[in-house]
Protein 1
Amino acid sequence: MTAMDMKLIKMITNHYWLKCENVVSKIDFKGRIFYNKFKYIDSMLTQSIINRHLNGEITVAHSLIKDNDIVENIVIDYNGMDTQRFYHRAQLVLREEGYLNFTAFASKTKGHLHLYIHKGHTTLQEAVQLGKMISMKLAAKQPKQWKVFPTNDMPREYNILTLPYDVYAKERASSWSKHM
């Protein structure tokens, strides 16, 4: 994974989250209790920190929601066994909906993908609604084995994703839009 591949995500880099061995905080949210193992680090997410994550020394996550409730990416966190089938189906659904730029990243766990849909400056509420709509369209064709981020069902501290380890596939508008 190169630094250029990471730039495809448009991560929020003014802070990051570091995974700890023990529970860092207990969050009461909408009648549920969440135990957070990620510690908020108010420091720049630099390439050296990313490299330490890629080498397996530490586990780092990035926020999906900016301070002003703006979202750059809608992310589908797939945790199933048939990544090829899921990506193919997601690709068709996203193209049909007019999303031209998206990238799938492989995570540390086999069969686990993070599909970043590069939406650009979107309000949090709009991103949540678009994520639910895309999820429903995918669920119509295959069993649901994913979560969509950002979400209103979890606290802001849980609207984070660990940094990916490798590019699975990337889709850019110019590669196939000429055939439409």
Note: The first strand starts at residue 16 and ends at 19.
Protein 2
Amino acid sequence: MAIKLSNLIDESLIIPELSAQDADNVLRELIDKAFNSKRLSARETAEEMRDMVPGVGTQVGNGIIKRGEAELFERIKYRESLGTTGIGEGVAIPHARNPLVKEMVLLMGRSKNGVDFSSLDDKPVHLFFMLLIPQEEKVKNLAVLAEIARMVKKPDFINQLLEAPDAKAVYKLLKKSEE
């Protein structure tokens, strides 16, 4: 049975137009989006701290999120140092394991102008699929990476994703690709 990417992503995890102009800031922008979702344990911990200890709890909670973002960024950068996740044809799939990830999360960002991501074909990347993986996950993530690679190989699919007007339309295209 194929992995359903629509179970790992929703409209709130899609950035229709990344503001970042370089690889590091693309990663940071996607990580920031992840930490603003309910899918990472750091967000829950931060919200619990705010509720339990007003004032001080907010500062502690924000510190947890900032440390989590920095740690996740370093893990993804380390993964990229092992070999680019820019697979070519304008697509990159940065990914990393992290204990703050309680369930696998997929984020997507688009860059109309493209970003130099040291892609295998030396072309700019326009579509970023960031996969955040729980530390203990060892197998399912490989199936997700393979499914993303399969999906973007469909004729005209990359162009359809780039031309979609908003996150809702992008999500619908991703969902339709599973049929």
Note: The two ends are 12 Å apart (CA to CA).
Protein 3
Amino acid sequence: MRWLVKSHEMAITDKYPGARPIMEHIRNGIIILDKPPGPTSHQVDTWIKQILGINKCSHGGTLDPRVSGVLVIALENSTKLMPVLLSSPKEYVALMHVHKDVPEHEIRNALNEFVGKIRQIPPQKAAVARRERLREIYFLEVIEIAGRDVIFRVGCEAGTYIRKLIDDIGKRLGAGAHMQELRRVRSGPFTEDRAVRLHELVDAVAALKEGDESKIRKVILPLEAVIDAMKSVVIKSTAIPNILNGAPLAVGGLARVQSDIEKGDWVAMLGPTGEMLAFGKALISSEKMMTATRGLAVKTDRVIARK
């Protein structure tokens, strides 16, 4: 990340995210969970609320009961980040079973045809309206082909249905195909190597009750971890009160700007110690943020920090 410095004035308020008291850390935390096959994503939410004794949590991108892998869980105050978590790109490893024998080169060619913009109608069981939607497949790589079984990795726009993608690939092959297994290996910036299992959360809570905070701080990350899924600006002290009241960020309130912001990007508005104060959509590019002397830079969507 490269920063452009607009002003050397820095605020002296706010707390460093890693220094929050433990209960505040939990209420402002996220869990990168390795969901097992079996439970629904909503059942996992219920378990986590019971384990932590909290009232609210939510997941960023539902996984079907049979699907395993990265499920980002936002806790209490962090649920304000749902617009960002839900819109983050996803990556999966899938096992596709083709219903007839098809030459390997035809399978590879068919998969390549689905890279780019595709049209999908959500399956009947989906909890969304069944109308055609445009989604993007960023890459689709074959890992292994063994007879009629094909293992592949796919990176895609949020809201892409891999089961439907496989069904469409089967139709393109003229043989039919269905999904046998699916695992999400990335959600936004969070990969499976950072994910923890439910028993690790249970162990961390048990350790916390014995006075050891270290495990829970490893299992639950500060909400600022999601900054990797966004662009960022650092704001001046004079702009903080307005931002905490939900006002848009004017260019005069900028201290530092990430160099590659484009209009429409999600932007985190940070205090000088890295605490996320709010986030919203960029109204102009970082280049214009640096050169403009008046006007608005970011439209505030959600305020994260308390006044």
Note: The mean pLDDT is 92.
